[in-house]
Amino acid sequence: MPITNKQVTEYGFLRQLYADSYFPDHVLDKGSAILVRLCERVEAERPSDLAALYGLTHAATEAFNLLEADFEAAGSGIETVAREAIAEDFAFVAAAYGFTGADVEELIAPREW
Question: How does DSSP classify residue 87?
Fold first, then answer.
């Protein structure tokens, strides 16, 4: 399902990380895909409240947890800069779909990074 939200289609997920050679593009591509799938799920499922949105973002966060091994295998990791960039992108997604009151820490609550 193609994303219809114009803000999202024009946004570059993880762009700050792509600009840093410490983070391998092939792993960042997987992270960007997780965020795109999150947007597709938000558009398809249309969560009616924050609890429903948090359910979707928690699933996406758990997918990011699995990427840690890919980062480590490539000599990288989800460290402070990456944590902040990923959290900002989750906050962007929430705001882009009208959930301006979403708590960033709750969006990514199951994170292991």
Answer: H
Measure the CA–CA gap between 60 and 34, rounded to whole angstroms: 6
Nearest residue to 54 via CA among 3, 91, 22: 91
Q: How many whole angstroms separate alpha carbon 22 and alpha carbon 44?
A: 34
* Rounded Cα gap, residues 15 and 17, in angstroms: 5
Q: Assess contact for 102 and 55: CB atoms under 8 A.
A: no
Q: Is residue 64 a contact partner of residue 86, using CB atoms and an 8 Å limit?
A: yes
Q: Express each pLDDT in 16-70 by its tens digit.
A: 999 999 999 999 999 999 999 999 999 999 999 999 999 999 999 999 999 999 9
CA-based nearest residue to 38, from 17, 62, 19: 62
- Determine the straight-line distance between the first and last CA of the chain, rounded to whole angstroms: 29
Helix intervals (H) in 46-79? 50-73
Give backbone dihedrals phi and psi of 6, rounded to 5 degrees, phi first: -60, -40
